[in-house]
Amino acid sequence: MTPQTPNHALEVINLRKAFGGLVVTQNVSLAIRPGERRLIIGPNGAGKTTLFNQISGDLRPNSGQVKLFGTDVTQLMPYQRTHLGLSRTYQIITLFSGDTLEHNVRLGLLGLRPSRWQMWRPLSFYSDVATEARRILDTVGLLHLANDPVAAVAYGEKRRVELAMALVQKPRLLLLDEPLAGLSNTERSQVKSLIASIPRETTVIMIEHDMDTALDLAETVTLLNYGRVIVDGERDAVVADERTREVYLGT
Amino acid sequence: MKWIGITLIAASLLLPPLFAGDFYINLASQILIAAIFALSLNLLVGFGGMTSLGHASYLGVAAYISALLTSRYGFGHGTAAIISIVGTTATAALFGVIALRTTGLGFLMITLALSQVLWGLAYRMSNVTNGDNGIAGLTRPTPFGISLDSAASFYWFALLVATFACLMMTIFVSSAFGSSLKGVRDQPRRMAALGFNPWMIRWITFTYAGLWGGVSGLLYVYYNKYIHPTSLSTTSSAEALLGVIAGGSGTLGGPVVGAALVLLLKNYASAYIERWNMLLGLVFLFIVLVMPRGIVPGVSSLTAALRDESR
Q1: Number of folded domains that form chain B
Q2: Exposure check for chain A: N or C terminus, fewer CB within 10 A?
């Protein structure tokens, strides 16, 4: 075994996934450099979230490979990939609605710590966990709501909790599934500057429909349609590409 | 307010042996045993989101192991108790591996099926278990030379064990692991994405619940000095599950209240009403209609509403 010095944060090789006769991922290959900001675009049903689910391990591909920092993770469970430095957010908000914002973020920290198996000491007794959780809540501008249950806060705030739960894990690779969906203009610019402030140690892959905002954040863009990669490359080249206009404008 | 509640609970636990007659002391002992059993089931149902219809397996396995070891193989109570708890926990660990291949309805059916297998064994392997006749003529242990044969002394013993069990299970669900468990109950997919292993968390809880089910089984066989396949039956599993749900699953007081209710109806009301099962059914129907989350959450939200009203 030679020690691996990964040239890529993420490699997706000939990934294929079909639900019955419907092929949702067709020979998709991606190579994403460490620190890259990649935007994945495509019309509804293009297979963007399905691709994310295969990268995070929620779905198993029929064939192909997923490599995280040079390690083949195709057969690994989602939690094992998280321990390799992968975090994600969900398009449909997936939070612990009865618990406080702080508790939600604390779970993000607990998931990576051995103390998640601790059977006699309450989570609330870990002051370092609480401090870190509150620091992240402050970063996303929600510290004043830390003790409110998720169910009691507004939609835009829940979106930011989604982000906070992923950010608190300090991931090496972060998958953001429509982080701007359903936000007001003010919230959009808040979340946009939040994403822009993510340190370069974190590679970011983002699915987003709001092109105006998302293109500013991206360096490279992948266009998916019918489960295939149509165009892939530097942002400006992809935007200028004939095929991008075709898919998006339908002409 | 909180102290009044604690004093009342303490008084109701400490007073029975001083004032009540043997019938009521024994009833109180049975409630304590049922409470441990219900609390252990509640770890699965309330905190783990795993609705099991086979939890009587662990009560029964512990009771049978202890009964067989002490009556047939001449083991002392101490050794027999340790072997039966270890054996029951191992059974739960094995059953967990099988049942946790699925969740939800599939899990419910597998736990039911596994407990039916044990029930069938207890019934049919009559050369070992004495079948439908059950194993009679058992004795109670004498910890530190103290006889537990009187109703009062057994009650104190059961109270000690129940307090310890309740404490241990409370610590378990309040711990960081308890937070992991509740997270897996509410959002298993998200928990996996956060780095938790949902299967392992469920399996550990399943095994731990089996251990405390076994403890209640030991008390059960000590109390009755007799064991019969019925204790392994779906009816005993279902009764406990009804108690947990009626009392309020996912709360700490709920299962205790629910277990007490089932036993009181069973022992007390049956003396007056022949069809006590019908009464049990009606009571549960009433609870489900009026307090869908169970008695304890129902009453506490009612008192909270009244307090707001009086302001």
Answers
A1: 1
A2: N
Pair of tokens at residue B247: 């009392």
User: What is the tens place of the pLDDT at every residue in B249-262?
Assistant: 989 899 999 999 99
For A94, the closest of B172, B190, B196 (CB atoms) is: B190
Contact B30, B263 (CB under 8 A): yes
What chain A holds in terms of domains, given with CATH numbers, is 1-85+171-251 (3.40.50.300), 97-169 (no CATH)
How far is it between the farthest Cα atoms of chain A?
63
The CB density around residue A75, as the number of other CB atoms within 10 Å, is 10
Q: How many CB atoms lie within 10 A of CB A149?
A: 16
Half-sphere exposure of B300 (CA within 13 A, CB side): 13
What's residue B56's pLDDT?
95
Given CB atoms, is A110 within the 8 Å cutoff of chain B? yes
Yes or no, beta carbons of A107 and B197 under 8 Å apart:
no
Alpha-carbon distance values, B101 to B198, B202, B208, B260 (Å): 12, 11, 18, 33
**Amino acid code (one letter) for B281:** G
Per the CB < 8 Å rule, is A117 touching B180? yes
pTM for the structure as a whole: 0.92
Crossing angle of helices B56-71/B77-99, nearest 10°?
150
Place of tokens 């070992």: B128
Rounded distance, CA A145 to CA A37, Å? 30
- Residue B99 identity (one-letter amino acid): A
Range of the domain at B42: 21-233
Contact at CB, A111 and B177, closer than 8 angstroms: no
Q: Tokens 């905002």, residue?
A: A213
8 A C-beta contact, residue A190 and residue A197? no
State the average pLDDT for chain B: 91
B228 falls within a domain: yes
Q: Is B263 part of a structural domain of the chain?
A: no
| C-beta atoms of B177 and A118 within 8 A | yes
Of B172, B186, B195, the CB nearest to A96: B186
The reported pLDDT for the residue numbered B10 is: 79
